[in-house]
Amino acid sequence: MSESSPDDVLSWENLIYLADFLEASDEHNFRMLGGEPTLHPDFNDMVLYVLERGFAVTVFTSGIMAERTLLEAHELFKDLRFERLSFVCNINDPTEPSSSTAEVESVTRFLKLFGDRVIPGFNIYRTDFDLEFLFQWINTFGLRRNIRLGLTHPILGRSNAFIDLADVDVVVARIFSYTPLLERLRITIGLDCGFPLCRFRDEQLAWLYRFTGGHSDFGCGPVLDIGPDMTVWPCFPLSSFQQKSIFEFNSLREVEKYYVDIHNKIRIEAGGIFKECDACLFREDKICKGGCLAHNLSRFQNEVRVRMDEVYL
User: Fold this and answer.
1) According to the model, what pLDDT value does residue 215 have?
2) What is the pLDDT of residue 7?
3) Which of 40, 198, 238, 248 counts the most CB atoms within 10 A of its CB?
4) Residue 229 vs residues 38, 191, 246: alpha-carbon distances, Å
């Protein structure tokens, strides 16, 4: 944070504007993301303010929080119901070489205090991922018994680790290798956006429907993010794509419509992420959107500009 410019840190003025904007849009959920939102010097006070405005707050965090901030947060929020304040904690495998002892200790401190209001998340960016440590942590810290699984996608205009389209089948097979443990431990999974429906076999889809209550979604659409400088973009993989200012809109519905219209136009131009998407009845019936749009748009950036302007940065 000490190296951040003022535009990288949400100001109180902008926070109040966003609360007013969401309230006027009849939106009752306030989601705080980052980076790492708990690094904000006024994190606890801002959460308090948003709660007092009547919003339900969800904080997306790594669980790596300064001890002073953590203890203060626990004292302030320990009596709140889960429906009022919850955390989605993206947890890394502690056995990975990239996981330091200090990181694991910090996450452990956080989970000991807030475990009962934490939904565990795991981002899949390689094919040989392991979920068993999550099962152990769910039982140890009393985390919510639902794992949010995110499939990593290319971030337009940047270099990042993500699952190659040729490896999606391997990822799906590995997810379903855990079904006996998931059933035995009564832990469900939720698939984040961008999973293509065609990579799942019928019996796998039936298991998802039976064991998760039919909550899996194979869509791809705007999941709006608003930055500290009040820019808005359609989702994290498209964070550098078609950015606008929130001040250009009168309501959240206007923002959503703006990006939905762009997505729909691009879908006509770009199709799906696989060749088979063009003739897919599930895509035609909008049961599946044809995978994450970032894959299509990434392919178009280095070609001759022969497509409509909306597909380029």
Assistant:
1) 61
2) 60
3) 238
4) 18, 30, 9
Q: Which amino acid does the sequence have at 144?
A: R
What tokens does 175 get? 């997810």
Q: Residues 269-294: pLDDT tens digits? A: 778 899 899 889 988 888 888 899 99
Low-confidence ranges of the chain (pLDDT < 50): 1-2
Task: Report which of 261, 260, 230 is spatially closest to residue 243, judged by C-alpha positions.
Answer: 230
Asked if 293 and 270 touch (Cβ cutoff 8 Å), the reply is yes
Q: What pLDDT is attached to residue 34?
A: 85
Phi, psi of 22 (to 5 degrees): -70, -40
Instruction: Give the C-alpha separation, 185 to 106, whole Å.
Output: 26
Query: Is the distance from CB of 242 to CB of 262 less than 8 angstroms?
Result: yes
Euclidean distance between CA atoms 142 and 159, whole angstroms: 36
Q: Name residues whose C-beta falls within 8 Å of residue 192's C-beta, 6 or more positions apart in sequence.
A: 148, 149, 150, 151
- The whole-angstrom separation of Cα 233 and Cα 244 is 7
DSSP the chain: -TT--GGGS--HHHHHHHHHHHHHTT--EEEE-SS-GGGSTTHHHHHHHHHHTT-EEEEEE-S---HHHHHHHHHHHTTS-TTTEEEEEE---TTSTT--HHHHHHHHHHHHHHGGGEEEEEEE-STT---HHHHHHHHHHT--SEEEEEE----TTS------GGGHHHHHHHHHTTHHHHHHHT-EEEE-TT--GGGS-HHHHHHHHHHHTT----------EE-TTSEEES-STTTTSS-EEGGG-SSHHHHHHHHHHHHHHHHHHH--SSGGGGG-HHHHTTS---S-HHHHHHHHTTS-S-S-GGG--
